[in-house]
Design brief:
The complex is a heterodimer of chains A (about 280) and B (about 270). In chain A, about 80% of the residues lie in helices and about 0% in strands. Chain A is built from 13 helices and no strands. The radius of gyration of chain A is 19 Å and the shape is globular. The model of chain A has no long low-confidence stretch (mean pLDDT about 90). By secondary structure, chain B is α/β, with parallel strands linked by helices. Helix content of chain B is about 25%, strand content about 25%. Chain B contains 7 helices and 12 strands. The radius of gyration of chain B is 19 Å and the shape is globular. Classes of the chains: A mainly alpha (about 280), B alpha/beta (about 270). Chains A and B meet through helix 7 and helix 8 of A and strand 5 and helix 2 of B.
Chain lengths: ~280, ~270
């Protein structure tokens, strides 16, 4: 009896949270972003470019902070900044995109630049906080649309280049010998990643970007040996973490990003422990 | 060029960053021959592969493959490079990699055809690795991985195989096993095979020819013609002695001591 009451309570609670527009926006963009991040995350792990993903987030931070200062929508700054970073890292070439030293130097500079911009802005603490740790509950209707459009472009291009990128990631020298443009493929991947990172930052924030871009895929590759299945599982985990993070956060007074990272990490830990037995 | 000739080099020279790697190479390789490419580190063995793959241009001379200049992207050549991105984190089943060697060039999300899947299984079977099909690449031993790479190179039914150091990191028994597999493939499919190695002994009984690269020069011929004290002394420009054991294995002995790599010629120590 008591459990029945509780479940009715949860359902009516769920219905009520969807009455708020900010919650609808959070679920809409959270869902789109989880799909994109889950897919791109698999390729990030395969191509060992996690560090580059983090760099794009931090370059995006400089862009976002700059646009806050200039009074523009921070999402444009995020996209602009990280795409610029994507182009710079691609220009260094495929081999360089795996080099921690170059990426690390650019990353530190970008974060410093972001700090300057944000300190010049009067709303210093709150703006910095939401860019760094995510503000899924503050996504505007406009930004939901931008997120959708950017995501559709990312997914369309990713679908076209998926197989060549998969092959070039596994066997770059053979792909090159067989006439594939591995450098161009690498650059396309880097730009897709930069765009994916900048929209995902709305949910996870700059510093927690791995929660969506690495952890779900890292869990998925331990569960299957087939790339397509791994991508599907990675998307499911990202969705599960985002949705349940949002639902729990609407009952508890703690940040959504915390719940998303914790759920993702708990699943990862569980799979690792279960698989190592 | 005769019907049987698949590679013809005439006064071929190659350089790397304006530095000569080797020069005056003259050789021909016929269809179905199993050829070892031997020589010290940095002597330009991989460079020869890069020329054949059309990834690099000769500095001078002529090189013809299938009666034409080499060009990048030839599906008639199966290639196993020395360097691979696969490590113990690559949890992908073997047949996926072999399959990608057929479908990895296609844009878009095409569904794999029945023919492609059958070809991938057949390629694994041809190298005696059918049981590895659904194993993870991350879980394979060095010898098993090389078989999978060989299957990956074979899946498109190439007329030529270029294998770059498949035997390095394998112990003697596994190296022998892999060479037998390769020889079986060479004979069964009549596929011309060039194999880069440091040590010629695991394959000496199967070889039709040897391409020996050292000291900026290239000697080619049957193993018993090339691997002689006279020829190698000429090639290295220093006294080298070739010793034979009772089973036909050879030992190359120079003034600098007995070793697999008799001499490092620093002047020509150009990486590809």
């Amino acid at each position: 009896m008591r459990s029945m009451m509780l479940s009715i309570d949860i359902i009516s609670g769920l219905v009520s949270i969807f009455q708020y527009p900010f919650m609808q926006h959070a679920f809409e963009s959270g869902t789109i972003i989880a799909i994109v991040a889950g897919i791109m995350g698999y390729l990030v792990i395969l191509r060992r470019t996690a560090f580059a993903a983090h760099a794009y987030a931090e370059i995006g931070f400089a862009g976002a902070a700059g646009s806050v200062l200039a009074g523009i929508n921070p999402l444009y700054g995020l996209l602009g900044g990280s795409m610029l970073g994507g182009m710079a890292i691609s220009a260094l070439g495929n081999r360089a995109s795996h080099r921690d030293i170059e990426i690390g130097s650019v990353l530190a500079f970008a974060l410093g630049l972001g700090l300057l911009f944000i300190s010049l802005y009067s709303g210093y603490a709150t703006e910095a906080y939401s860019i760094l740790f995510g503000q899924i509950l503050g996504i505007s209707a406009t930004n939901v649309i931008i997120t959708l459009v950017v995501s559709l472009v990312i997914l369309a291009i990713a679908a076209i280049v998926y197989k060549p990128i998969l092959f070039a990631s596994l066997d770059e020298d053979v792909a090159e010998a067989k006439g594939m443009h591995t450098v161009l493929l690498g650059a396309i991947f880097m730009l897709l990643l930069a765009a994916a990172v900048s929209i995902a930052i709305q949910v996870s924030g700059v510093l927690l970007i791995f929660a969506l871009m690495v952890t779900p895929a890292a869990t998925a590759i331990r569960l299957t040996k087939k790339p397509t299945y791994a991508i599907a599982i990675s998307v499911l985990i990202a969705l599960l973490a985002t949705w349940s993070g949002l639902i729990i956060a609407s009952y508890e007074p703690y940040p959504v990003s915390f719940f998303i990272t914790t759920i993702g990490f708990a699943l990862y830990l569980f799979v690792r422990l279960a698989k190592s037995r | 060029m005769g019907d049987r000739e698949v590679i013809l080099a005439k006064d071929l020279a190659v350089s790397y960053k304006d530095k000569s790697v080797w020069h005056d190479a003259n050789f021909r390789i016929n269809r179905g021959e199993f050829v070892a490419v031997i020589g010290p580190n940095g002597s330009g063995k991989t460079t020869l592969f890069r020329l054949l793959l059309g990834l690099q241009k000769p500095a001078s001379g002529a090189l013809k493959i299938f009666n034409a200049a080499p060009k990048r992207g030839s599906m008639r050549i199966g290639y196993v490079p020395q360097r691979h991105a696969i490590d113990n984190e690559t949890n992908i089943e073997c047949i996926e990699l072999v399959h990608l060697a057929l479908s990895g060039y296609k844009w878009g999300l095409s569904i794999s055809t029945e023919d492609e899947r059958r070809a991938a299984s057949a390629a694994l079977e041809a190298v005696g690795a059918a049981e590895l099909a659904h194993k993870s690449l991350a879980s394979l031993s060095g010898g098993e991985l090389q078989r999978v790479f060989l299957a990956e190179a074979l899946v498109s039914n190439p007329e030529m195989l270029l294998l770059d150091e498949p035997l390095s990191n394998l112990d003697i028994k596994r190296a022998n096993d892999l060479v037998s597999v390769i020889d079986r493939v060479v004979k069964a499919r009549n596929v011309t095979t060039l194999l880069v190695a440091h040590d010629i002994n695991p394959m000496i009984q199967f070889l039709d020819k040897v391409i020996y690269i050292a000291g900026g020069r290239v000697a080619t011929g049957k193993p018993e013609e090339v691997l002689t004290s006279k020829k190698l002394t000429e090639l290295y420009g220093t006294h080298v002695e070739v010793l034979h054991d009772s089973r036909g294995h050879i030992l190359i002995h120079s003034l600098y001591g007995t070793q697999e790599e008799p001499l490092r010629d620093e002047e020509h120590d150009a990486k590809h």
